[in-house]
Write a structure and sequence with these properties.
The protein has 370 residues and is of the alpha/beta class. The protein folds into two domains: 239 residues, Nucleotidyltransferase, domain 5, CATH 3.30.420; 111 residues, no CATH class. The strands form two sheets. Strands 7-6-1-2-3-8 form a six-stranded mixed sheet, sandwiched between helices. Strand 4 and strand 5 form a beta hairpin.
Length: 370
């Protein structure tokens, strides 16, 4: 039996919000960490953390939180990460640029339908390039019109959104030299909408071109919730790692998550996902057959969740500081990140998935030889 401890860092609110705020209240990143520990190694994990606290003069009853130690005691964070890697715990982490994730949804909903007959490798390449172009260069109107479409789907708003995107891809602001190919794909998407409208109705047809709504713990409809996207991706990665035998694992999440009911819903809902329309990601298997057990614990009572918090918080602060703020950091921060991404250097679904613009991803991967 394997137990996975999960926690997140960064505002988990809707990516599609009332204010259409693409600055996300100065929290552009969301990170999620998932630390897998074999049942027989949990006592050793607890013993190490007790010894770690003693070495650093921390009372054993004190909960380890990333926000308390990232700046004040980076050595503690490094030692904890180093232990996790040395013990070969299974790390399945996500670093998500929220604006990039909206761009992913724009491409998946409004461009990919026009490419459904393309080779999967070519489709993935084109998809990644377009996500990078939109997230990096597209004006705010492209995001605000998509936001309005998601909040209140209609044929009129679909046309307005696609028109704003076509205007961008036809402008000098678009660095992509595609001879109008992207605009033609938007036209094909509108043709597909018209076909579906003729077969069903506009209200039914529009559902093919907007993200599936998420639900919060009160049953309210929310749009593009970052921790739901990360959670789905992590389940698909664990499904790949465990060869679809998810009934053999336990997921332990912090009870403080306000989206506990949503995650419960996701566990059952992911089995209904139409894998034919999911992007082909080599590290993921969205054909989920078995259901993992999901439980919630107070992080104060779970050493594993505290470790997940330290890793998620470190990834958020480090990547934000390095890639987005250009902060100069001490060597120990780079060393800690280098240890976290150690699993990325092996050919399996483990490690950290970076949902960030390709330009930033290429720079990061080049710096750390990934």
């Amino acid at each position: 039996m394997m137990e996975y401890f999960l926690d997140e860092s960064g505002n988990t609110g809707d990516l599609i919000n009332k204010k259409n705020d693409m600055g996300f209240a100065n929290q552009p990143l969301f990170t999620h960490s998932c630390v897998g520990v074999a049942e027989g190694k949990i006592s050793r994990m607890k013993g190490f953390v007790r010894a770690l606290k003693k070495r650093h003069g921390i009372d054993e009853s004190i909960e380890l939180k990333s926000q308390d130690y990232y700046i004040k005691n980076p050595e503690l964070v490094y030692e904890l990460v180093d232990f996790v890697i040395d013990e070969k715990y299974t790390l399945v982490c996500e670093v998500m640029d929220k604006k990039c994730n909206v761009a992913v949804s724009i491409v998946n909903q409004l461009i990919v339908p026009a490419m459904e007959n393309e080779d999967s490798n070519e489709l993935l390449l084109v998809r990644n390039i377009l996500v990078d172009i939109i997230s990096t260069f597209a004006p705010e109107i492209c995001f605000s019109t998509f936001s309005e479409l998601c909040k209140d789907p209609s044929e009129e708003k679909l046309n307005i959104c696609i028109e704003s995107l076509k205007e961008f891809f036809s402008s000098e602001s678009n660095p992509l030299d595609d001879n109008g190919g992207t605009c033609r794909m938007f036209d094909k998407t509108l043709q597909e909408f018209e076909y579906r409208k003729s077969r069903y109705s506009a209200d039914v047809a529009i559902k093919w071109f907007v993200p599936i709504p998420d639900l919060d713990s009160n049953g309210n409809v929310i749009k593009l919730l970052p921790n739901v996207h990360s959670f789905y991706n992590q389940i698909a990665r664990l499904n790949k790692i465990h060869k679809r035998k998810l009934s053999d694992i336990v997921l332990t999440h912090d009870t403080s998550s306000e989206f506990a009911s949503t995650l419960d819903f996701c566990i059952s809902e992911i089995k209904t996902v139409n894998v034919d329309i999911m992007p082909k990601i080599p590290t993921c298997d969205f054909k989920v057959i078995e259901t993992p057990k999901l439980i919630f614990k107070d992080s104060k009572d779970s050493t594993g969740i505290q470790i997940a918090d330290i890793i998620a918080g470190f990834l958020n602060r480090y990547v934000h500081g390095l890639l987005y703020k250009g902060i100069k950091m001490d060597t120990i921060y780079h060393a800690t990140f280098d240890r976290i991404i150690t699993p990325n250097r092996s050919r399996d679904p483990k490690g950290t998935n970076f949902v960030i613009p390709l330009s930033k991803q290429h720079w990061l991967f080049s710096k750390f030889n990934l």
